[in-house]
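Before relying on records like the one below, remember that each one covers exactly one chain. Contacts with other chains, cofactors or solvent are not represented anywhere in the record.
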Amino acid sequence: MVKWDDIKEGEIGTSMEYGPLMRAEFVDYANAGGDTNPIHTDEFAGIRAGNKGVIAHGLYSHAFLGKMLVDWVGAENLKTYGGRMTGMARPGDMLLLTAKVTKKYEEGGEKLVDLEIKSVTKTYYVRGMGKASPDMSDADLIKKLENAKYEIEVGFVPAEKWEFKLKVKHIEDVEINTKRTVMDEPVVRDWLRAGKDKLTAEIIGKRKGDSFRFGIVRLRESIGGTATVAIPE
């Protein structure tokens, strides 16, 4: 249960992570909510609209911010809530949701908290496995992974053959297992906005000896807004 004395201005009051988003969810939401715009459920409609595939409904993404707040203080204590869409969410994305405390005060006999709420989409472009000396710090390993060059070559004749090759340019003191590394859907569909998006690397889970799992990800704010909640006694 949230406690008034534990809430500090400038700190995260609550947070939530959801995902990965699935195409079937968009279909279920369209049927339940009545927003049947095909850009959310039909790949060709999404491509024709210039989105390079389907995208999540804006209100569907918004709903998870609402759920985060309701789970924290209860529906009866959610006073105001609103936000603006700043980016698209797509299949496979993780939603990273936060509510930062901007003000806490008492008014009309209630203990109130103003919040800056945010939803950030986390999109995987590369996921894989590799080896590096256990003596190499996570920070140094991440830097090397971010500065590596990843290449994918695909060629095929539908009725005949398929040729696929993944290459990672040599990384000093790091060995990437290309048979255990994949380029995710965003690479194939070219979802990166040149000059606007930035990719970063992360270590997934704990390193085990010289082995590690990694991801190349993009973090992009998709919703920004504000909310006010009452803290129950």
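The first helix runs from residue 23 to 33.
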